[in-house]
């Protein structure tokens, strides 16, 4: 009887705790330190701004450090591939975006990673709508002016992009198709700065740039915005109409940014990171800075993010197919 008494007492204590709602909570999974957050675009760009604001707050919430790693090139594909092949221990995260996750698979037959198989999404953190912009020397003062001129051209209309397979590239294809099928010639620039320079200099007829990127250029008189792909006018650019107002409601694409980890990362680690990532971008001070930078803050749950990514894949596959684009 004496030998069994500690066991019985232990069982009684456990039952008592459970009945009173005080059952022990499972320990939080340990994470490698420091965490790395990869972003596929250069310092100073919109995605980099998101990564740094997110990384700083996430480090505070996790009581650790998050180092932002800019793996630039190929429209975010280099960073996505690096995270897809990284150890699945929660130590390496990706700030992925629509281009490298939803557009690249149907656009590039030799893509070195498979987002659906190798990456798990934790949370969509922000969205950025797009602006159709033209050089300030352009005679186009509206979408109707731009479309009329494009239809009248004997050759194609040059549209700058920030790389083949990016949202601005296929957004331009979508715009041309919705506006009656005029022909465009995408001019793919390797660097964001080069594309901006080309627009400002008038080397191209137009471009789709994110609101986050375009606001400063437009307010500085470097380029003119004709319309936004957002459902409503941006409070940062209240004089710029929506494409719906311009009579083209199906030109409604946006760039979403979400945090991913390698697919084999343990579920408990994914749950922890997903909760803290969403909390980081929803923190009032972070949210305001992101809004001021031109982003819409989302901070979704894992389940919501998974549904979003699944829905975006076939949508963009259809756009890529209709364009006839072959990346390799």
UniProtKB/TrEMBL annotation:
Q: Name one Pfam family in it.
A: TctC
* Annotated source species: Piscinibacter sakaiensis (Ideonella sakaiensis)
Which InterPro entries does this one have? BUG (IPR005064), Bug_dom1 (IPR042100), TAT_signal (IPR006311)
Give the domain of life: Bacteria
**Assigned protein family:** Belongs to the UPF0065 (bug) family.
Protein name in the entry: Putative exported protein
